[in-house]
Specification:
phosphotransferase system; sugar transport; alpha/beta; 7-stranded mixed beta sheet; two-stranded antiparallel ribbon; Fructose Permease; globular; kinase
């Protein structure tokens, strides 16, 4: 996807690491959050926008709007960091015809009905299946908390 410099799964969405390490390190001019619930909640959107660094635009939108905007080339000339909470969102984008080559998994908190597969990443059965489906579709899935960490192939954590 032209214009996208990093696509990240992080259930915290825009927070300290994303704002200070990823966004500034990648020199992005936009942080995009695709989340149907947050996109329809003005309070949550406002909180996320406050967490974004000064001078970096935010788009907090639904999956449908994201697919439409990306296919229309709206972000082609930008440097966008895309953040989602769950792998299902990215699988939906791939299945809608978007060309996602690589995904970085940062943080997926320990929750009810999850199994920890690596430090800071716990998955439900469905999330694991979604990641496996992305890999099967040729998407490279990596694990990396911060840009300074070595990038690891996420498939090794699924064994």
């Amino acid at each position: 996807m032209q214009g996208f410099v990093n696509i990240r799964i992080d259930d915290r969405l825009i927070h300290g690491q994303v704002a200070t390490r990823w966004a500034t390190g990648l020199r992005v001019n936009r942080i995009m959050v695709i989340d149907n619930d947050v996109a329809n909640d003005d309070v949550q959107k406002s909180i996320l926008r406050m967490a974004a660094p000064s001078g970096i635009s935010t788009s907090i939108i639904t999956e449908e709007k994201a697919i439409t905007n990306i296919k229309a080339g709206k972000y082609d000339k930008q440097r966008v960091l895309l953040v989602v909470r769950q792998p299902r969102v990215l699988l939906n984008l791939v299945e809608a015809g978007l060309d996602i080559q690589k995904i970085n998994i940062g943080n997926m908190s320990n929750r009810e009905d999850t199994v920890q597969v690596k430090k800071s990443v716990s998955l439900t059965v469905e999330e694991r299946q979604d990641i496996e489906a992305l890999i099967a579709k040729g998407v490279k899935v990596t694990a990396q908390m911060v840009p300074d960490d070595a990038e690891a192939d996420f498939a090794k954590f699924l064994k």
